[in-house]
Design a protein that fits this description.
alpha+beta; six-stranded antiparallel sheet; 3 helices; 6 strands; 36% strand
Length: 140
């Protein structure tokens, strides 16, 4: 697995729930932001994927909430792809507070969809390697 990339995010007040905690759905948004940042770091833009006729698909996400986040907290959201031998792969992510406390861990099963056939592509690594200018970022 390649070294995960991280993106900094500051929790905004409107992202919190009535108890002042980061709303559970926002963790997914933070994770998605980091996933796109990983692809961009590899030199793969959303436009390039659309032109190639593929798009990412998330099949399952598990979130472990470990510590609360509140408005103003500064976090780093990491992202790394862990390749398997099939159409799908894992996306491993952590939300870490500035002091090093892990606030959440997210683990997803993902793949890439052929946008014409509406089916998962058989070998996502080969397709992404062809699009990437920095394939090592994705451990390709």
């Amino acid at each position: 697995m390649a070294q995960p990339i991280t993106v900094p995010i500051t929790v905004r007040g409107y992202e919190t729930d009535s108890q002042g905690h980061l709303n559970m759905s926002v963790y997914i948004q933070y994770a998605e932001h980091a996933r796109w940042a990983l692809l961009e770091a590899a030199g793969i833009s959303q436009v390039a994927m659309l032109e190639a006729g593929i798009g990412p698909v998330n099949l399952e996400t598990t979130i472990k909430y470990l510590r609360e986040l509140r408005a103003g907290d500064e976090v780093e959201v990491s992202c790394a792809f862990v390749w398997g031998e099939r159409k799908s792969f894992r996306v491993e992510q952590r939300v870490v507070k500035r002091d090093g406390t892990v606030a959440a861990e997210l683990s997803s099963v993902a793949g890439f969809l052929d946008l014409t056939e509406r089916r998962m592509i058989a070998d996502p690594r080969t397709r992404l390697r062809a699009l990437a200018t920095e394939p090592q970022v994705l451990d390709l």
